[in-house]
Amino acid sequence: MIRKTAILLACAALAFTGCDKIKLPFPRKKAEATPTPAPVPAIATLTPATPAPEPATPKPPKNPAPTPPPKPVIDPHAQVVVILYHRLEGRQGGNLSIEPELFEKQMQEIKDAGLAVISMQDFLAWRRGEKNIPPKSVLLSIDDGYVSTYDVAWPILKKFGYPFTVFVYLKYINTGGKAVTWDQLAEMRDAGVEIGSHTVSHHDLRKKPPKVAVSYEDWLKDELERSKKTIEEHLGIRCVALAYVGGNSTAKIHEAARTAGYEVAFTVYGQRLGMTTNALTLGRYDVKSKDAQGRDAFSVAISFQGMLAPSGEPVVAQDAASSMLTQPMQNEVIGNAKPELKANLASLGELDPSTVEMRVSGLGLVPAKFDAESKTITYTPGEPLKPGPYVVIVSAKSNGLRRETRWNFTYAP
């Protein structure tokens, strides 16, 4: 009876709970606890040894210094002849003028002889040891600044591809007539033509004009410095070369040229020039002159058989002929074809007898005799001289310095 009553009560409870789960009145059996696994003993981990750092590779500099170019091989035994022209107007141009046809013919002769024509800058670079030149080289120069330089010589020289140098004096430029203009000089400059100084007034530098009021030193300084500065300012160039008027100079003029900033200066005494020839007494062959044998200067120049210029040791007393006794006398005209050439060298100081030498234009080094006691040097030509002008150059060493003197005479039978 009691069991039935319990069942009825349960059914009644279901009617009130709806869809809820039936909660059994009997307790559930507890699930067995999952056993905790025994801890696994830790295995020691070996840390690999840190390798020693490799030496650091040096990093190249950001702007490595450029490798200097190899120095050029310089031929110290090369020789240069400088040829001098003035006007290319034929006979109408006067004594300093030659025919344009002859000028072109001479340029062809230079080419046929296989000679190299170099620029003034090449010549200077060679002397400084910066650039090599061919063993036999020619330097062309044209003096004064006549317009024939621009309209006759230049076209011919362009045809042959020859560089050249023009020496101009200020008072002639832009004066009209036969004179070259600044514009023409600028045009030639742009084509690579070198422009040098031939002074301001074209007056002999050894003596100032009578009407000049300033001292000789001030006048000389102006002639050299103002011409250089004006050329540089008008043409925007560096003027480094000077041509002495008439080729005449003295030790005082040399020093003034050096002070003015000229690197080289030229005379008209034709010589083969070497690497160490004195920079302020560089000789040129004037095409209108002849040597003692009657050969024209151009032929002597390109034959490379003319006088070899002495080395460029310091030279003093360059124009000492005015202070010593010479025979023939300076600028004397003689009628003897075999004259005794003689000079007393006492004014040059104590000389080393073994270094005393005499050279004669057209003859070269001659076997002169020097008497140390009287300090006199003498020479008599073995063969008769040919008519024409002559230059005698005597040189010697005194206290380690090379001294030199020269004088001129003319043989006219």
Indicate the low-confidence ranges by residue numbers. 10-33, 40-46, 314-323
Which topology of the largest domain does CATH recognise? TIM Barrel
Number of strand segments: 18
Q: CATH homologous superfamily of the largest domain, by name?
A: Glycoside hydrolase/deacetylase
Describe this structure in words.
With 413 residues, this protein is of the alpha/beta class. The chain has two domains: 73-310, Glycoside hydrolase/deacetylase (TIM Barrel, Alpha-Beta Barrel), CATH 3.20.20.370; 313-413, Immunoglobulin-like. The protein is 23% helix and 20% strand. It contains eight helices and 18 strands. It has helices at residues 2-17, 100-112, 120-127, 148-160, 182-190, 216-235, 251-260, 297-303, and strands spanning 79-85, 116-117, 136-144, 165-168, 194-197, 241-243, 264-266, 285-286, 315-316, 326-327, 332-334, 341-344, 357-360, 364-366, 369-371, 376-379, 388-398, 401-411. Strands 1, 2, 3, 4, 5 and 8 form a six-stranded parallel sheet that branches. Strands 9, 11, 13, 14, 17 and 18 form a six-stranded mixed sheet that branches. A hairpin with a 3-residue loop joins strand 13 and strand 14. Helix 2 (100-112) runs parallel beside helix 4 and helix 6 (216-235) runs parallel beside helix 7.
Quick tags:
413 residues; alpha/beta; TIM Barrel; Immunoglobulin-like; 2 domains; six-stranded parallel sheet; 23% helix
